[in-house]
Amino acid sequence: MSSIASSASACTLAHSSYRGWESLLLDNGLISLQVVPEVGGRIMQFKLGGYEYLWINPQLAGKQPPADGLGPDGSWLNYGGEKLWPAPQGWNNNAEWPGPPDAVLDGLPHACEALPGEEPALRLTSGNDPLTGIRFSRVVRILPGTTRVSFEATMTNIDTKPRQWGIWANAQLDAGKPDGGYNSQLNAWCPLNPKSHFEKGYNVIFGAKDNPSFLRGIISGLMRVQYQHKVGKIGLDSAAGWAASVNGQTGNVFVQQFDFVPGVPYPDGSSVEFWLNGAGEIHAYGKNMVMPNDTAENPYVLESEILGPLTALDPGESSTWRYGWAATNIGGDYPVVDCMECGVVSESLTAVAELSFEDWARGNDSSTILSCELRGRFGTFVEGSARVNFLDADGIVIGGMDLPGGVSPLEPLLVLTTVQVSAHTATVELVLINSSGQSAGRLAAATLVKRPARWSREKAQAWYDRQPWLVGCNFLPSTAVNDVEMWMEETYDPTTIDRELGLAENIGFNTIRVFLNFVVWQADPLGLKKRIDNFLAIAAKRGISVMLILFDDCNFADRVAKAGPQPNPLPGITNSQWVSSPPLAMINDPAARPDLERYIKDIVGSFGQDPRVIVWDIYNEPCNSGMGGTSQPLLEAAFAWAREVSPTQPLTACAWIDHECPTSQFIMGLSDVISFHSYFAPEGFRQRIAICRKFERPLLCTEWLDRALGNTVEDILPLLHEERIAGYHWGLVNGRTQTHLSWESRPGMPEPAIWQHDLFRADGTPFSANEIRLFKSLIARPIEPSTSATP
């Protein structure tokens, strides 16, 4: 390898080879670009550390283009990588580009020259294309100490008549998994335009209108495109100037940033487009086309495409459009919610100071120094360090501190720390410092939120020691298919509730866990509260306290929760009509927050002093249904709203999937008492207990019982008794939820010999008389308070 150009910095430009092609390598120690001028001037690979972002066609790797730049019978040779095309694409008139293929712009060699300057740069120039009447050139440049790449793309009219095109930068991302199959954890994120001229904020250009890959509103204001090998293409008129793709298996992020020009036309009306290779039907090239489910012909590829404005050029006139790339890592399958010059935001920065309730109620604090917890997840484009600054209401910096450790694009920047701040602090900002000690820019900022503190460990333990061993179940009457049907006036069934709680009383249950649903409150708040009061009275008559659940991300029905009559259960499918609370689209919608806050405060405010309510479960399984970490802001807000109305009962939310992950640790850090779900056999169950014990607070297992997995009454109930952990297994009477069926059950399968959940048949006979005897025996056995929450 011989050096072409270099400087005193870490940036180099050198001859190289890549996958059998002669290439030019731009490298700065963090990122590298493999440029192959001979193949349509492509950036053939973009690499961060050891991770390669771009897809390369293995059938064409190392092959030189034919003399005419085309494949057999004039076909397109799809080499992969990233390239420039003219837009719009179409086959209706000569104002639309009918490619690919395009022999000159896409298939034939581009001229390449190294440019003088402090940092190495390349200029790639296409031939003159008679079809479109244009020539492309672009300057590619990398800088030291950052993963950012800058492009200056120029389009020149080489025709004798005016031409109008937009510059279209098309990056083909590898959507396959290393061990085979497609990567469903490859997601692209892009801000929607709040003033979009598209009805839904995006436009389906190719493929089915209901392609499940296109997910609008999972996070408010963002479009999510999840790769599922289903063919389709959408366009967005995004004005934010960025799009980001995340490989959730590795955490690697590919960012495209671009200059957006408001008030001018864009090709397809779009500044960002996403194409998904996959099976299905499209209309293109003037005909209907069936895309095969053959990965040799139709490989796993997601194209992330950014476009410049439509520009009219007179003969000899040129137009330049600037865009850039960056790479980072956010540590897993998380979204990108914002993009700055120095990095990306995955989970927004929060700054929370917990006050004593007395200080919070007075609207001030008794001390001049507050303990402030900072949280957030980020990816950086630079190496160096991070610093938080504290600003007063006028934006003046009044303090700050360096965060421990360095930052690198190769690793996520996780902010999870407690700092001491002045009571005059209004805002906390996170800034990055590069390896030269200079500011790389502000990455995030958060308003300091003051909220009432959670219970102390001593208060939580004292509360728990006053309780009997809490044993019960997750309760839904057998006549309800979900919590909406349970609570709607037309289907609320106190007769069945009373009869079935009689079964619970007979066993010795002293508590139950019950789901509410926001949409019922939204439709009839006074009626819902009357029915809750009636339900609590029925339970109290049976000597049973109630844990009420306010929010829930589980959406097994895969539809939007609505008040009113509910569909019947699907034959052979467990919990087939369960819907989330609130609807998933509301979770990150700022416009929905006032209603969600009113719901929490109304329900908790109405029953927060009621001794019939034992615990408030603020949020069931946050981040389920593919929400990832995006439910965390609502989770945190809901805890704060509940505490603001001063309930006498403790608050909790469950750790439910990976009890050691940051989200679970965050949940347990908010909770007065620790609740968790575990459907593991005894060994795994004990491991989850050990994790939760670290918080030194009372433990409540709010979901268990999956017999086929070894999570049985015979094995788990004695363990809960031994550890004095409150236990709420799933299901009392088998009914319309059909939760006796396994998650693998399908229509037509025989009734299972071993039930997944539930204790009784609808006629009141038990699935297992031995299980009922064991419940009665252990509940009747005395238990010492000293064996309770802490090790």
Any descriptors?
disordered C terminus, ten-stranded antiparallel sheet, 42 strands, globular, nine-stranded parallel sheet, 791 residues
Structure description:
The chain has 791 residues and is α+β, with helices and mostly antiparallel strands. 17% of the residues lie in helices and 34% in strands. The chain has a ten-stranded antiparallel beta sheet, with no helix packed on it. Helix 9 (632-644) links the parallel strand 37 and strand 38. Helix 5 (494-507) packs parallel to helix 7 and helix 8 crosses helix 9. The radius of gyration is 30 Å and the shape is globular.
**pLDDT < 50 stretches:** 1-9, 786-791
What gap, in angstroms, lies between the N and C termini? 62 Å
Q: Class by helix and strand content?
A: alpha+beta
**What sort of overall outline do the alpha carbons produce when their principal axes are compared?**
globular
What is the share of helical residues? 10-25%
Strand content: 25-35%
Radius of gyration (CA) equals 30 Å
Question: What does the largest sheet look like?
Answer: 10 strands, antiparallel
Task: Describe the SSE topology.
Elements: E1 3-6, E2 12-18, E3 21-27, E4 31-36, E5 42-48, E6 51-52, E7 82-87, H1 103-107, E8 111-115, E9 121-125, E10 134-142, E11 149-157, E12 163-174, E13 186-191, E14 203-207, E15 214-216, E16 222-226, E17 232-236, E18 242-247, E19 252-258, E20 272-276, E21 280-284, E22 287-291, E23 301-307, E24 311-313, E25 318-329, E26 338-339, E27 343-355, H2 357-362, E28 369-380, E29 384-391, E30 397-402, E31 413-422, E32 427-434, E33 439-452, H3 457-465, E34 471-474, H4 483-487, H5 494-507, E35 511-515, H6 518-523, H7 525-541, E36 545-552, H8 593-607, E37 613-620, H9 632-644, E38 651-652, E39 654-655, H10 662-670, E40 674-677, H11 682-693, E41 699-703, H12 713-723, E42 726-730, H13 769-780
Parallel strand pairs: 27-33, 34-35, 34-42, 35-36, 36-37, 37-38, 39-40, 40-41, 41-42
Antiparallel strand pairs: 1-2, 2-3, 3-4, 4-5, 5-6, 7-12, 8-9, 9-10, 10-11, 11-25, 12-23, 12-24, 13-16, 13-18, 14-17, 15-16, 17-20, 18-19, 19-25, 20-23, 21-22, 26-27, 27-28, 28-31, 29-30, 29-32, 32-33
